[in-house]
């Protein structure tokens, strides 16, 4: 007897996320249809199933079928960053490019409650940053309007829309990590339990509280899958003990923007080409590697052309590019890091926000006559940062504005590099991140010229010209 193909949705309006997860899990042992299994379930029976299999026996992947959409409002950018470091989820957050911040939209860390004078200083510094930001918007807008005038036939509204990111992107360098924002999160039960565990183990009070609140909200829909999330003694000891070793070394001169390729796969090209052959053949990987190594340069070039040459800019290259890895040590400003942190298909190790690695002073702010006020803000920030750092280095991060540099270690495969450069070297991308994306492209091209030549390059410009146009760096006063 042939069975009819059947494809349908399990409706989240009729079934709870935990019941949907059980209906899928049970197909492993039951010949019944998903809808029949689901009809036979109740929320209580589903909870019992999860208690036994997911919690009891550790079949955690079942929890991936229970998906939640969590709306989180008015948390600091610093907290959003820790939330988004959970990479197996989807996020959309308030854009500092398309929205403006009100002067009072900053978080005051609970860590300052026992330090009333410092708390006042922190609040004054935040207010000064927000005021300077608010005043900078019309001033930098004027600069941009002069640089990019309205075209003859252009609708004035369309022109304003076109130039908006040019001045907002610059002014947002003044906003501190304490700025409040909203973020929408779509996440499955398995990833959420781990995210909650990490958050409630975090050194910052705000992050721990948000973790607890997310847990309470999530328990309404997936009560069994998150209720056992507890702080991790292991994570807490790592957060406490490793910084002592990391910071027990003399500081060297800060680097002002860099993107160094610190480690890479020397045989990346051959290994990717061999994997491409392997996928469609029957020989072992070592045999294909030997075949590729024995090829003449023109043959390798032709094979690379066949694997990558017919793509349009919007085609995802085949997965075999993931067999080559590159590690970059990047110093970039927080404005650029905002964009980088959202790229999930790589391993990112960011250092904490600091005032010790210098800051970016966007040229348009200088052209708008705002250099002195910007430097005044920098001085206030560095004083406040130093005072908070004395007793709580983690809480000190809140006062650091987006202009400051930070370091991040990135390990990514070649397929991700194709995607990242394609998206972030494009002319509409954020100017500081474009420099990084173009530098990454340049470095890969240097060490893997054959495959690197297939990475997208924006027309008629280089990253050096972007730097000349938009940026100026000044060393930290520290
Ligand atoms: C011009 C521009 C404006 C933006 N504006 C905003 C904004 O206002 N607010 C905001 O929050 N973000 C904004 N973003 C960020 C954007 O939404 C992405 O989060 C970011 O660019 C990372 O891209 P990615 O998801 O493709 O990369 P990665 O996370 O590195 O993923 C690489 C690829 O893997 C696949 N993938 C990864 N994870 C999943 C998943 N969970 N489900 C399905 N496929 C997946 C996708 O094919 C994806 O392209 C903006 C980006 C750009 C370029």
Describe this entry's structure for a reader.
The strands form three sheets. Strands 4-5-8-6 form a four-stranded antiparallel sheet. It has a three-stranded antiparallel sheet with strand order 1-3-2. The chain is an alpha+beta fold and 478 residues long. It is built from 21 helices and nine strands. Among the domains are: 65 residues, no CATH class; 162 residues, 2-Layer Sandwich (Gyrase A, domain 2). The longest helix is centred in the first third of the chain and has 32 residues. The chain is globular, with a radius of gyration of 26 Å. About 2% of the residues have low confidence. The structure holds flavin-adenine dinucleotide (FAD). The site of flavin-adenine dinucleotide (FAD) has 12 residues, from strand 2 and helix 18.
- Tell me the β content: 5-15%
Largest sheet: 4 strands, antiparallel
Strand order of the largest sheet: 4-5-8-6
Helix tally? 21
Distance between the termini: 78 Å
